[in-house]
Amino acid sequence: MKLWSGMLDENLDKKAEEFNSSIKIDKRLVYKDIEGSISHVKMLEKCEILETEEASKIIDGLKEIEKNLREGNLEVDLNSEDIHTFIEASLIDLIGDVAKKMHTARSRNDQVTTDLKLYIRDEVENIIDFLKNYIKVILELAEKNLETIMPGYTHLQAAQPVTFAHHMMAYVMMALRDIDRLKDYKKRLNSSPLGACALAGTTYKIDREFTANELLFNEIMQNSIDAVSDRDYILELESILSIIGIHLSRLSEELIIWSSQPFSFIRIDDKYSTGSSIMPQKKNPDMAELIRSKSASLIGNMNQSYIMLKGLPLAYSKDMQEDKESIFDSIDTIKISLEIMAGMLETLTINKQKMLKACKEGFINATDVADYLVNKGVPFRDAHHISAGLVLYATEKDLTLDEIDLKTYKSKSEKFEEDIYDVIDLETIVYNRKSLGGPSPNEVKRQIKWAREEIGL
Ligand code: ARG
């Protein structure tokens, strides 16, 4: 700012200037901005809009700026308005007036959305890698717990026996869908807006195919107004990341419940737990709680973008500058959440005895008592009633179903024989649930194999 200038009315108010600036947020687009500009200038040369010598000077200058930034000999100036003006000003400093030709047949409107798409494209690959690692950790945990019997729940009431492997594989399936969503998203993301200019294209004979190929886009946005106005790719990615966040949040909630004293199914490693400053006995699952709450930020970011865009007329409005803060935050949040969750799962201790005990205390073989009678010709409704009576009896006497003697069983129904004890054995129950998708160890092994093949792990 030329503070000494007498023409104060031509300068922005100091606060307004700060308010207008996006450099603190968009500085992370710096290398993508340089990449986009190099392709643009190559295209200007090819189309004979710039002389070869001019283009070479600009491209060499841009490469030097990149090198200086990477080596720490140049820093992004946080007093600039945005990353695009910073790069242009740095180039003018470095090579002089010829730098001013770089922005021919371009606007910051097509430039910013090009940069952002290039940045997001890389990050989507990174997020897929984080998801794959998270899946890998769960698959290993499942492989070790194929026979770890635990209660499966509905309404958070012990329902039927499953295995820990079976339960955890449900989260693998969610993550596989997440990867699928991201891959599908990439197809729509990877369309080039560059060359749309401010909104109405240009009179220069530019070659949009050329820049799209250079930047590895797989197609070109077909309408210049749409190209600069479209932020669907922000909404869509934030929606996908919100879904991933919800999956992680549900798992966090389970880890929190399972590690609480009444359950004690698992122990979260000290590396991922904190203590209390006042209660010496406390070990808190803070990481899981934070991941649970991060899903709220993801949904918040998504909402912000939807609401920001809702009433915007075409084409660019400055409101759209605010798209970056939320998408960057969502990208950072999902990566760290996936990383911490994977670490927590990798170091988890499983208490098999506690899980088994909870199965017995929860009468989760009551359905199998009823099924036993059904197999002997008793109508299901009556069988259900008889089984409920046995559960009541056991509760009163503080027994589990396998501790009730045969005489009592027979007093409820003559159909009961000695083999009832085999049928309600928890292991037998789990092993017999061989239907596709079910908990029997061999079936879960198949699920694991299927998941591995899906993502080539
Ligand atoms: N910093 C701006 C943004 O992020 C760049 C585009 C500015 N375009 C404009 N017409 N003022 O949206």
CATH-derived topology of the largest domain: Fumarase C, Chain A, domain 2
Along the chain, the helix and strand elements come as: HHHHHHEEHEHEHHEHHEHHHHHHH
The description of the largest β-sheet is: 2 strands, antiparallel
Strand order of the largest sheet: 1-2
Strand percentage lies at under 5%
**What's the average pLDDT?**
95
* Computed Rg: 31 Å
Secondary structural class: mainly alpha
Q: Regarding CATH, which class of the largest domain? A: Mainly Alpha
The set of bound ligands, ions and cofactors reads: arginine
CATH H-level homologous superfamily name of the largest domain: Fumarase/aspartase (Central domain)
- Helix percent reads 55-70%
- Outline, from the CA principal axes? elongated
Q: How many domains would you count in the coordinates?
A: 3
Ranges with pLDDT <50 over ≥5 residues? 1-5
> Treating each run of at least 4 consecutive H or I residues as one helix, how many helices?
19
CATH architecture of the largest domain: Up-down Bundle
Question: Tally of extended strands?
Answer: 6
How far apart the termini lie comes to: 55 Å
List the helices and strands and how they pair.
Elements lengths: L13 H7 L2 H4 L3 H17 L5 H19 L12 H13 L12 H37 L4 E6 L2 E7 H26 L1 E2 L15 H7 L4 E2 L3 H6 L2 H28 L6 E2 L18 H25 L12 H24 L2 E2 L1 H10 L4 H10 L4 H18 L8 H7 L7 H4 L2 H7 L8 H15 L2
Helix pairs in contact: 3-4, 3-6, 3-8, 4-5, 6-7, 6-12, 6-19, 7-10, 7-19, 10-11, 10-12, 11-12, 14-15
Arginine binds next to helix 6.
